[in-house]
């Protein structure tokens, strides 16, 4: 049986990367939605305060993307290092936690390759 502490670290690091990956995608969607809202408000001749508020929301979301990406990159490196270090441990490599971690690493890397990262 694999060391419980090692499996716990795999599970925690995997969860962090999954959460940050999802957060980054949500911020990107939020930016698109906020930009559309700004355009709708401008087209409808809305009050200047409403337009400024919508632009502030868009800008706040845009600022969160690089912050989240940096955290995601750091978390991914930590997870990749752990997965790489545990690859030769047959008991750990056979665990569901290891399989999940490996899958998340591949998913993030594939998504980044798709966006030209």
UniProtKB/TrEMBL annotation:
Top-level taxonomic group: Eukaryota
Subcellular location: Cytoplasm, Cytoskeleton
Entry keywords, A to Z: Chaperone, Cytoplasm, Cytoskeleton, Microtubule
One of the protein's GO biological processes: post-chaperonin tubulin folding pathway
Transmembrane segments: none
Molecular function GO terms recorded: beta-tubulin binding
Keyword Transcription regulation: no
A Pfam family it matches: TBCA
One annotated Gene Ontology cellular component of this protein: cytosol
Homology family: Belongs to the TBCA family.
Subunit structure: Supercomplex made of cofactors A to E. Cofactors A and D function by capturing and stabilizing tubulin in a quasi-native conformation. Cofactor E binds to the cofactor D-tubulin complex; interaction with cofactor C then causes the release of tubulin polypeptides that are committed to the native state.
PANTHER family: TUBULIN-SPECIFIC CHAPERONE A
Protein name: Tubulin-specific chaperone A
Organism in which the protein naturally occurs: Vanrija pseudolonga
Gene symbol of the encoding locus: TFCA
